[in-house]
Amino acid sequence: MPRVIRLIAIIIVGEYLARHFLLYLFPVIGTLRVNDMLATGLFYIALVWFTAPQSSRSMVRVNEALRGVLRHVRSTQSWLGAAAASAAMLMVVIDGLLWGNMRLPFLVSPWRYDLVLLPGFGRILEGISLLAVNGLVVPLSEERLWRGLIQPQIVNMTGVSRGILATSLLFSVKHTIVDASLARFLALTAFGFVMGVLAHRRGWHASAISHMLANLVATGLSLVYG
Questions:
Q1: Distance between CA 205 and CA 78 in Å, rounded?
Q2: Which residues are within 8 A (CB) of 34 and not within 5 positions of it... i.e. 6 or more apart?
């Protein structure tokens, strides 16, 4: 099995287990969404760490990579990429027309912890965890994995256009399986395509900034109006 297929399988299975099983293995911290974010964040941090070359597994190299990402904060392309990716998510309207509220089969842990820690701080902890994990950790990790590792290998096998499109489709399939829903399939394919084009032209550091900006805005709006 090609290494790229193994990595995609690890991402899908690992995130599925984190979000459907691991989050239930410890007491609820405020709300279950906080557990969800903690489990997801820990999984992605571990995966990015272990997929890095041995020589890069140090805090010095991690800091260098983060500085490389932050250099693109001032990049016009990264901000335009965030705007284009956010606009692409409007395709959820088409997804809704095609699939409606169709749900897919899924497995979930039968185990539940009855203990709830810090119940009075649930809303605050949920907001912090969503902004930290969904707004920062996940987009940074996904761009490192999907656009930094997976897309270049697929592009080498299929060519640029097909490689970017194939990576975008696989990125969306991952979300469909983990979410057990088709509600964002086309929207996330389009989102992934925007990220893929930007990463191919400017590197995955640039697409990571775009992805983080888009996620932070979406997460912030959901917290305010959700």
A1: 9
A2: 28, 122, 125, 126, 129
Sign, CA dihedral 157-159-164-165, equals negative
As beta bridge partners, residue 103 has 181
**pLDDT digits over 50-90, tens only?**
999 998 899 999 999 999 999 999 999 999 999 999 999 99
Q: Which residues pair with 116 in a beta bridge?
A: 28
Q: Measured between alpha carbons, how far is 160 from 27 in angstroms, rounded to an integer? A: 46
How large is the C-alpha radius of gyration of the chain?
18
Residue with the two structure tokens 């990049």: 75
Residues 47 and 145 sit within 8 Å (Cβ to Cβ): yes
Are 168 and 196 in contact by the 8 Å Cβ rule? The answer is yes
Q: pTM for this structure? A: 0.95
Q: What does the pLDDT look like over 111-128, one tens digit per residue?
A: 888 899 999 999 999 999
